[in-house]
């Protein structure tokens, strides 16, 4: 029998806490019977819900935690209140101790990132973690990072993000050498941020073994799926992500109101119902639920706070895939190769226009 | 009879040049018979096309220009080749001399902005021009700026953009005191760019007569239409704009493929055709064609380069509205009030935490 995959869950995170986390875990367990869960949360709240799912209960251990981090808690506050003892902290800590291979929480992003950084620390040679999102495209899916872990990134940090995202694309899409683009703006006059230009030059001059650098991409390339991995600093990345989500909702609203407007359109809707169902499934934000924290000594997955059990299960599926496909190992490998290559290339690069 | 509105056109700009510009002008003229056009371009190319539209011909003067700026010309190159004598330059110059009240070009953005800055110069007290886009929202339309004139903006420049965008909202939407939001990211830990935070504090502390400051907005507020004017620096603004355009195209593609997939869905499509037509019209990018260059001594409208006659006509409509509703006057007024207010408020502000 294959090795089991140990996953830790913060049962108290998200708008609905254990009411979503536990049923979500059940759904994921049916799809991946080799998961073993460590569930962190208030026993009084979680136990009665867990009792409803005997299969899940058999595959899980429930660890009681006194403290739950509220959705509006500020990161510094969360660290003060919740370090060592909150369900959020302990689910992350399980990754540090090796009891879990990945942690999943629907808790608030700022608190989760602050705790993850504090507990797991950034990897050697990585200055800043990033949040990677899976972006549905016309061609399939891409990875976009950073979508909001930090604001701003220098050229070296952008290259780090490229390596992290590249490893994730190898793990998630099974692509040997994923294509990577740097998000930029195309107005000739300005030619983009200095840091983006420098990162582009470095990636061109010193090609990486683990990825294929494709140059700059623009905002509309995100939906096209022009590259497997889009790299950006977190401010623009977060705005792009939320703008796309907002636009999708907006068009969904247009479509609904257009279809319900006349008798003819309502009849048309009935005929084309399967097509609309397909479209709805395609646009379902729950399907791509899960931001992956990369660059730390361990993987943490952030689920949307407002998602339902199906959405939370998708975040667990993502966590499962990341472990099964050895994301951490791939990242470590790629980083070693990159830094080895950097030392080898150091002399000619220093002679260049660095 | 009301005063005529003189509009200058760069007939050589865009992917299709005069073949789109001239029919576009005809469409706009039918809607606004009080426009008088000054058309700048190569006479040999433009004259035969103009001859096909007797009504337009009667309302226009054609001014021959030897030089046309190609779509891939770099800004510096465009200035070298095209200053004083290109159709792009001369259409802008007509605004400077007062022969036209506004210029419209589908030429390349970088070149058009470089020439506009060089020819018209920025307004007193305005350091940087901005490009304002009209953003279709679930509630109607908003104005978003800057969408790519320059990268980065300090707090004062963001406030300038707020004033420029506010004046445009008054001119375009007829709103007495438009609501203005600063585009930011919501991750608590980081709380957004320093400059955005400072601009927000200043707008809160010293309320402007011409606008109502609503605080920070996020990427998904763009499609919702949470505020009338969204202010951002040009890098994030350009990425947001192109991401939204890309997402709309992507979903349009999903919808088309879903509707054509089965016989039932094709029948459904026929029944609901009027609803789909409505949706298509709602999502038609030609309808909101036109980036408005703000902050210069004169207004220049940039049409999409790849648009058709209908789209170019929409850019002229926008130009017409901007003049009819006295955008330049409104901006000047708001700036005077702002700076007067600043002097008055200078003492207490200096005692504060500036």
TrEMBL record, chains A, B:
The keyword Cytoplasm applies. Its main location: cytoplasm. It is found in: Cytoplasm. It catalyses: a fatty acyl-[ACP] + phosphate = an acyl phosphate + holo-[ACP]. Keywords: Acyltransferase, Cytoplasm, Lipid biosynthesis, Lipid metabolism, Phospholipid biosynthesis, Phospholipid metabolism, Transferase. Homodimer. Probably interacts with PlsY. Catalyzes the reversible formation of acyl-phosphate (acyl-PO(4)) from acyl-[acyl-carrier-protein] (acyl-ACP). This enzyme utilizes acyl-ACP as fatty acyl donor, but not acyl-CoA. This is Phosphate acyltransferase.
């Amino acid at each position: 029998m294959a090795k089991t995959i140990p996953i830790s869950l913060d049962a108290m995170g998200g708008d609905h806490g254990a009411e979503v986390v536990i049923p979500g875990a059940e759904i994921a367990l049916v799809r991946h019977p080799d998961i073993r869960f460590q569930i962190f949360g208030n026993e009084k709240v979680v136990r009665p819900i867990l009792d409803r799912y005997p299969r899940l209960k058999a595959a899980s251990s429930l660890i009681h935690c006194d403290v739950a981090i509220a959705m509006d808690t500020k990161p510094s506050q969360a660290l003060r209140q919740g370090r060592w003892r909150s369900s959020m902290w302990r689910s992350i800590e399980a990754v540090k101790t090796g009891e879990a291979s990945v942690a999943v929480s629907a808790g608030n992003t700022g608190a989760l990132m602050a705790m993850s950084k504090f507990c797991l620390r950034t990897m050697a040679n990585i200055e800043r973690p990033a949040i990677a999102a899976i972006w549905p495209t016309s061609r399939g899916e891409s990875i976009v990072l950073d979508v909001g872990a930090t604001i701003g990134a220098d050229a070296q940090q952008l290259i780090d993000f490229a390596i992290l995202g590249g490893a994730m694309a190898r793990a998630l899409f099974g692509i040997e050498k994923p294509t990577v683009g740097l998000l930029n703006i195309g107005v000739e006059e300005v030619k983009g941020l200095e840091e983006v230009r420098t990162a582009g030059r470095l990636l061109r001059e010193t090609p990486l073994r683990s990825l294929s650098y494709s140059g700059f991409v623009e905002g509309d390339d995100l939906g096209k799926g022009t590259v497997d991995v889009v790299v950006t600093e977190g401010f623009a990345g977060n705005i792009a992500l939320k703008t796309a989500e907002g636009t999708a909702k907006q068009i969904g609203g247009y479509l609904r109101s257009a279809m319900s407007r006349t008798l003819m359109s309502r009849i048309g809707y009935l005929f084309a119902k399967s097509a609309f169902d397909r479209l709805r499934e395609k646009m379902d934000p729950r399907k791509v639920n899960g931001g992956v924290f990369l660059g730390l000594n361990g993987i943490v997955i952030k689920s949307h706070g407002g998602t339902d059990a199906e959405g939370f299960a998708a975040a667990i599926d993502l966590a499962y895939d990341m472990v099964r496909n050895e994301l951490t190992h791939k990242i470590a490998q790629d980083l070693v190769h990159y830094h080895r290559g950097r030392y080898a290339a150091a002399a000619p690069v220093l002679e260049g226009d660095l």
